[in-house]
Amino acid sequence: xxxxxxxxxxxxxxxxxxxxxxxxxxxxxxxxxxxxxxxxxxxxxxxxxxxxxxxxxxxxxxxxxxxxxxxxxxxxxxxxxxxxxxxxxxxxxxxxxxxxxxxxxxxxxxxxxxxxxxxxxxxxxxxxxxxxxxxxxxxxxxxxxxxxxxxxxxxxxxxxxxxxxxxxxxxxxxxxxxxxxxxxxxxxxxxxxxxxxxxxxxxxxxxxxxxxxxxxxxxxxxxxxxxxxxxxxxxxxxxxxxxxxxxxxxxxxxxxxxxxxxxxxxxxxxxxxx
Length: 274
Prior knowledge:
The structure is a single chain. The chain is an alpha/beta fold. It has a single domain (6-271), classed as Divalent-metal-dependent TIM barrel enzymes (TIM Barrel). The chain has eight helices and eight strands. It has helices at residues 15-24, 46-58, 83-103, 125-145, 166-176, 197-203, 229-237, 255-271, and strands at 2-6, 29-32, 62-66, 108-111, 149-152, 181-186, 208-213, 243-246. An eight-stranded parallel barrel has the order 1-2-3-4-5-6-7-8, surrounded by six helices. Helix 1 links the parallel strand 1 (2-6) and strand 2. It is globular, with a radius of gyration of 18 Å.
């Protein structure tokens, strides 16, 4: 299993210091929230992109991809009936595709963004979902050309009302039919799924390109009672080649503790035979 970690837990750290610590703790990859680099991807210069890429390379880290795609700039929305705003919002996604490709090869873009895809201004869920799928289909060619894979992330109903299950995410993936549009599994965001998580992973394995691990309350692994073993064993048995990426939402424990405890716990779970 290849371990990665999301960089937003390293608030107040320089990118170089965070990368050095991540590698020294045993992670092989770094996943980046673009808002930690700049308000807009277009604000990140070519020289800065090379610098970030060189830092990762110097530490022996792989660039995993991007997540939290639409935290900034504020006000964007990809399913709004406002065509002009929708165009600006998908332009942002296009800019992120360019950034993702510039930071490293074979990057993924985890498309959660609950506020920016939920229904607004009288749209029905079906209308919003159709606009979401249409936008993805339009940017798919650019993503494929750049070697980037956009991942439709299912979110629980408490966060969003567009694409709430892995089945719905896979339906969009199949509708678009592009290798650049796939899906992923997130243990925390699968809270509303009715099937066992390991069974879901097995059922939709062919479309899963990334995995986020966290406790159901958003804390880092080992701080709750989520049983990661069934999912990890299913991934291993099926020959999963992607990343197991730590995404914690509670930063109060500090970056060092979150990173160390999580990878130690996950490795121990992977090593268990029963």
